[in-house]
Amino acid sequence: MRYELTKDLETGNALIDKEHRELLKAVNDLLDACSKGEGRSSVQKTGSFLSNYVKIHFSHEEQLQQKNDYPEYTHHKAFHDKYRKDLNSVLEKIPADEASISDLAALNNQIGILISHIRFEDKKLGKFLRGK
Q: What integer pLDDT is reported at residue 39 of this predicted model?
């Protein structure tokens, strides 16, 4: 199943949605690799992308929240901080040469957590920003 930025994931904020599309493209690239039997060799690339992505994207979201006095900033930032830590923990365990199936599953779990965050928390942020 490929991911698309459907209405249930759109926030209505151009920057956030653009960055979410970049995330979904990277996830879809990993899924494509998996369908070709190349998933384990693509985990490092996706993990590296994801690590850089959360640094930049979370920073953008947090700046928007602070600038607009988002009332759930503390909660949202706490999720970001924990997610960065959990993601780094998963990525540190993945060997540089070739990941195992369990490494792929752990990374997939982190991706699922992030997609769920987008679907619920980022949607709330988008609704708040549209109301400003």
A: 86
Q: Which residues contact 69 (CB under 8 A, 6 or more apart)?
A: none
pTM for this model (two decimals): 0.93
Structure tokens at 70: 């988002």
Q: How far apart are CA 95 and CA 103, in angstroms?
A: 9
pLDDT at 111 over 80: yes
Burial class (CB in 10 A: 0-12, 13-18, 19+), 27: buried
Cα–Cα distance for residue pair 80/83, rounded to 1 Å:
5
How would you label 33-61 residue by residue, b for 16+ Cβ within 10 Å and e otherwise?
A: beeeeebbebbbebbebbeebbeebbeeb
Report residue 104: phi and psi, to 5°: -60, -40
More confident residue, 41 or 115: 115
pLDDT at 1 over 80: no
pLDDT of 2 reads: 85
